[in-house]
Amino acid sequence: MYNQSDFNIDDEMIDELRDLGYELNDYSLSDSDFRDLDFDGYSTEDSGMILDVPYVPSDEKIVHSLLNLAEVTSEDTLYDLGCGDGRILVAAALERNAHGVGIDIDPMRINEAIEYAGHTGVEHLVHFAEADLMEVDISAATVVTLYLLDIINIKLRPRLLDELLPGTRIVSHAFNMGDWKPDQQQRCGSINLYKWIIPAKVTGIWEWQATNGDTYRVSLQQKYQYVTGTAWINGQAASLKNALLRGDLLELTVQADNSRPIRFLMRCQAKQLVAAEGDLQATPAVKIS
Ligand SMILES: C[S@@+](CC[C@H](N)C(=O)[O-])C[C@H]1O[C@@H](n2cnc3c(N)ncnc32)[C@H](O)[C@@H]1O
């Protein structure tokens, strides 16, 4: 059986975990979120390995729901962090021709995954490596799949936000990301599935010219995908009616007194905000601080 001491639980996360309803002293795999876990006799004591999460495979229905939720196509490279027997990546390769990289710390799982990929004939699309998911380079992923624990998702969160490109999708079986709310959530039977889209970093003061000659300036603050701020037109305070960020797309609606609101749709590109739609924006928005 697994004990709390088998897991790398970091004391710094206590507050956030309490917000999630966990009592660390009681933290155990009998929590209701783990009701579907089947330990299958597997024990860390046999191998001396420290797992962050025990091995429990996602069932077929969940695998398909995760791939649908992430909208996986043949253009994607999936990273399954804690890949188990590789079933998510093999399904993505078989059904969608997607590339996959599976990481697991347990060599037994990696052997199973390589064997499974060979049996199903998708070994040219998938690669499996024995490594610690906390340390592996994930920057090439366009989709990340997780069946870990809230606590591990939260520990991974800064790396996901910093190292993945804006627009990368993350889907998680059963476990959330603390105060980073999902962009989408759905049920699969009694299980919650979550999806996040990595937001571009837009905090700062930005300025651009409109095609009518007006100079727009916005000061933006950001927490995850949520953006707030203030706006000016030609140096006069205006109202930032709307600021929506989804991946690398930022929609800003600015309104001066007694004027109609003007909506800009911009794409974050090479440290600029480039017009992504319409003909109202004459120059890319550049950061002035
Ligand atoms: C709940 S299973 C999920 C398996 C697979 N992703 C699925 O959904 O079918 C979690 C997996 O994470 C692996 N794991 C645990 N700690 C890990 C770590 N630090 N680095 C890499 N893999 C880890 C376990 O060996 C296990 O296979």
From TrEMBL:
Keywords: Methyltransferase, S-adenosyl-L-methionine, Transferase. PANTHER family: METHYLTRANSFERASE DOMAIN-CONTAINING PROTEIN. It comes from the Bacteria. This is Class I SAM-dependent methyltransferase. Its EC number is 2.1.-.-. GO terms for biological process: methylation. InterPro entries: FAM173A/B, Methyltranfer_dom, SAM-dependent_MTases_sf. CDD domains: AdoMet_MTases. Transmembrane segments: none annotated. GO terms for molecular function: methyltransferase activity. Pfam families: Methyltransf_31. Residues 75-136 form the Methyltransferase domain. The lineage of its organism: Bacteria, Pseudomonadati, Pseudomonadota, Gammaproteobacteria, Aeromonadales.
